């Protein structure tokens, strides 16, 4: 047993059943459909130096399910849509009277390109009380054409925006940078090796 | 002693007196009443896989107490109101000139349904300097009818909104997802097993 | 060695040189004065149960120093002002054209009450490019009368507001609640013991 | 083995491969150029007391690369610009119709002062759909004159602002203060030693 405890802070990880996977989502249930939003983690790649870099940004998975009967939703008929970080930015900055529209082709760049077409539309409700979300999926491979609508009130939209704003830096992986900041004393080493052209541009 | 320390980060938990319960609240004291806001944690359920999923969203407990004498409040006569995540969204997005109103029946779906009726009203103060909070509780079981008012200044409301915005992702359990993101190298495994239709919708 | 590792997460603390005190501040240097803002931690009290409760909210310490010569500030002549959580809310919600003013008496409730009078004024700059902060201290005990002005640009004010918004939940102690949320499986215990009147007000 | 586990929380650090460096950035790729934003950590200095203080605020490194061919960027010709905390505040508070401009001289205060001149301009796009970023670098030492433009949509700008707002308190080092707040019981010690003139200004 020769561990050394140092100044500074960081996160320690033990192999095993620590920090198990956690599935979270936030759902909005309405008369004709339900919408569930789930964050998906970013991915990292190890560098030869032992450091890590972000390999792929995370995203939000939207799942739309039509109602089968009152308060029962048919998740077998669900349609999904993945929101990229920039699309999240779009929804976060959407004003009360704004609309937006995203087009996705899950087969883009593959042989089946163009066979499946997904469109997510977010538009203000006529009475200004919120927005509706509409996901249309046209799947020529399955000869399927689905369109699911769900109204989202201003309060529900605020909760989504709050959750989106919270999770966005994690989807970008910036939390991993933030957590890696150490309290090490850099006062000596640093003066000796100024990083030219980087960080001394505005010092007096 | 054969622990292995791995790259990556996560939270470690030791059985015992670690991370004890912490009671926090934020109070606003006024001439005729006091209002205390306390967050209540979300709940998780363990899955067979060892992962966890959110079982129940957290909420905010509002406690209103009438004044008994100057700077003394009668907490025995307190009335409580639980704010759901969506109701929190409502308060967070409330504009200076907006009102809102929530109706709760703590016995909903039980035999005593309708016997207790709670109404929380948040309305702008006439001079535009803030909002007042009014909780009315009509309890036919106890033949009791209480209504407690408390004015909340714009600055006090800002503090509440800041605290609400901070705590909302925790009430949704999204922090547990965020904390479970690992720095593992996923560069190899992932290319081998693309998750179809999920995360490749917008890649070039 | 018979530690047990459990599911769930939390923070572990080792007696010793872990999480040392850290002094941070953010300073604005101008021609005639400098302003430094430093957060001060909230305080907790242990309960008999082993839990903790917030005992005292944290605050922000503002320190104003007049310039002695170009880019030199006379910190011996500094004047300080402690911003409470609600006063922070006031500054955070201040619009471009708004002013605010806080009066403090550090001896309030003591024999020297009224002998020292501090006034912090935050007012828009005439050209709309930001606000100035003015701290006036009248100290009859020392026969001293100081007034320090410092202009703060819109960008500098944005940085302050961002830092204030970040730190506010910590000053309220809500981070300690947030960090104490565990991933424990509550699915069984909870159905058995519904918390009456608290959290079932809005469930279907 | 005589560790003691105490109440309270904090971060534990193990010397070794824990909390490795993590490189994160967020990139915007357009037809004629790419822009990458990377946070750089603040620096701390150890005090004789064992405490730490912030020695230098962190910053954001902007990297602009011109396109070499479709979807290929020439990072050898990249130009960099370091955004200070206040400049970040400027970008965060920029309205849809606002512009801003920053001038940097990486050699300021050295013999080559004035030889390199960098200007970052952020201006609204003519159609109001976002802003363009323009970095001009005039380097008399290398007889080089580069100017790189990249349009940034409103949604992309929202993502930047969200990331900037998240990272700003870390660049200020305030997270280290926040993480050092302990759950220690201060109820006894504190009453004995009131900190005069600091924290009792507004207590009743």
From TrEMBL, chains A, B, C, D:
One of its GO terms (cellular component) is DNA repair complex. GO terms for biological process: defense response; DNA repair; regulation of DNA-templated transcription. Pfam families: Whirly. Keywords: DNA damage, DNA repair, Transit peptide. Transmembrane segments: none annotated. One of its GO terms (molecular function) is single-stranded DNA binding. InterPro entries: ssDNA-bd_transcriptional_reg (IPR009044), Whirly (IPR013742). Signal peptide: none annotated. Belongs to the Whirly family. This is Uncharacterized protein MANES_01G189300. It comes from Rhizophora mucronata.
